[in-house]
Structures are given as structure tokens and as C-alpha cells.
Amino acid sequence: MRVSYLLVLSIFLSLSTVIQAKKSKRSKGKVSTKQLKCLVCRALSNEIDAYIAAIDPSKKTETGTFRVDSNGRQGKVIIPYARSEESLHDMVDKVCERFNDYAQATEKSSGKFSVIPLTTPTGNMNPDFGNYDVLPDDELNKKLLFHCQGIVEDLEEDILELYVNEEAKKLDSKLCSAYCSKRNKVEL
């Protein structure tokens, strides 16, 4: 009788261990929606910075009113094309397409979850790719595209305002304050 109790107990413990291992394997590599939105927002900010940096700085555009004032002058101003509303509207329409070339990964050194581009904006392989372990997820690109489009839709006016008026790079802390943790929050 005592042997059967020990046998049942050992079988139960073995099954429990196997179930826990499977659960931890399934949950490994999963990330919360809030964390994923934060990562997508920061990646979006990096993509916007790369888009602006890729535009020829000598390219200019006219902005302002085309009405003639009482002195016969028009209120036109020539500004860099990269930070013009025309350029940024064009970018907002296309930027989320880049998320088709992203993957989820963990940093080899820290184990921290990341969303990384597989290629650079010029089409070359990401030089930092070797620093990550890629986690396969068949649905990830759809999720990233969905979150990117949602963020762009929610923040389109803020994106235009920040990037037209700010000369600084890395505006992700201002842009992503609604999606990332409160300790990094900066009011727009």
C-alpha cells in the first residue's frame, strides 16, 4: 500500500514538472501588448529618424501662403524638404510598411525582449543581427503592422508637429509617452 502511494506521488510530481516546463516554454518569448506597443512606437520613431536622415539635406521646398499682401509680396518661405509637412505626410503613409521586415528577438547579452529590423533602410542585413536570438512567431508581422498603423493613426498630428518643429533626433520619449512606462513619460 505504501509503495503505491509513493508511486502515485512520484508520477504526479513528474507530470507536474513536465506541465510546468511546457508552460514556461510556451510563455517564453511572449510579450504583453503594452510592451509590444512601446517597442513598436520606439521602432517607429527610429524609422522616422532614418527616413528624415535619408533625404538629401540640400533639397528644399516652398511653404507658406501664395496670397499677395498689400505690398505685392507673397508669404512664402523656403525650408528643408525633410522636415516639411509634405515630406512627413508622405512618410506617415509609408512608414509602417517597414515593419514587414522586423522580427522579435532577445538580446544575447541580457535576454531583454526586442523588436529588430532584419534589414537596414538601404536594404543591407542589419549589422546588429548577430547580437540577438530571433524568436519565431508567424503572426508577429501582422501584429507589428497593426500596432504601427494604430499608433500612426492616434499620433499623426503629434508626429507632424514634433518632427516639423523639432530639429532634435530621438524624439521617441515624447512621441511614445502614452505607450511606454510612466518612468519614461514626457508630456507632448
From TrEMBL:
Q: Into which family does the record put it?
A: Belongs to the canopy family.
Q: What is the primary gene name for this protein?
A: CNPY2
List where this protein forms a coiled coil. Answer: none
Task: Identify one Pfam family in the record.
Answer: DUF3456
Q: Which residues form the DUF3456 domain?
A: 37-178
Q: Which organism is it from?
A: Caligus rogercresseyi
Protein's UniProt name: Canopy homolog 2
Q: Which keywords belong to this entry?
A: Signal
* Signal sequence annotation: 1-21
Which GO terms of the cellular component aspect does the record hold? Answer: endoplasmic reticulum
